[in-house]
Write a structure and sequence with these properties.
This protein is α+β, with helices and mostly antiparallel strands. It has one domain. It is built from 5 helices and 4 strands; from the N terminus they run αααββααββ. The mean pLDDT is 91.
Length: 137
């Protein structure tokens, strides 16, 4: 799927996507990761709080299980500690990482990005507020 089609159909029109947006290998890694957490009785939300947030208000990082698009992209996620959910809306989150956004665009030759929050029905992680950032041309 092309990024612009994704934006037009999924984000702007809020039409749920039916296809898996990850490559088969990335989806397998994601599924294996979730199975391993379940095996050790670890909630994904706890894993994110401990391993990504590490006591900080937020973490802006590459998505370890990125969506796959036809054109080159980088997929980042802005994770928010639940104690700060009220502080961070999408607009404030973008402002918070504005320098990082410009650096990513410059260093990787991207001139566009889209930032959004998945609708509830499309969230695989519901207990940690997070926004997706897709960088593309």
């Amino acid at each position: 799927m092309k990024v612009n089609n994704y934006i037009k159909n999924f984000i702007n029109l809020n039409i749920p996507f039916l296809e898996i947006l990850r490559t088969d290998s990335v989806q397998t890694k994601y599924d294996d990761h979730i199975k391993k957490l379940k095996l050790y009785n670890i909630k994904i939300e706890d894993y994110i709080k401990i391993n990504l947030l590490c006591g900080k208000e937020y973490k802006f990082c590459l998505n370890l299980f990125p969506y796959n698009f036809e054109e080159p992209t980088l997929h980042y996620v802005f994770w928010i500690d639940p104690n700060f959910n009220n502080k961070y809306n999408l607009k404030y989150s973008i402002k918070t990482v504005e320098c990082e956004i410009n650096k990513i665009k410059c260093e990787n030759g991207f001139n566009k990005y889209i930032a959004y929050e998945n609708p509830e029905a499309a969230k695989s992680i519901t207990g940690i507020k997070h926004f997706h950032f897709i960088f593309y041309n």
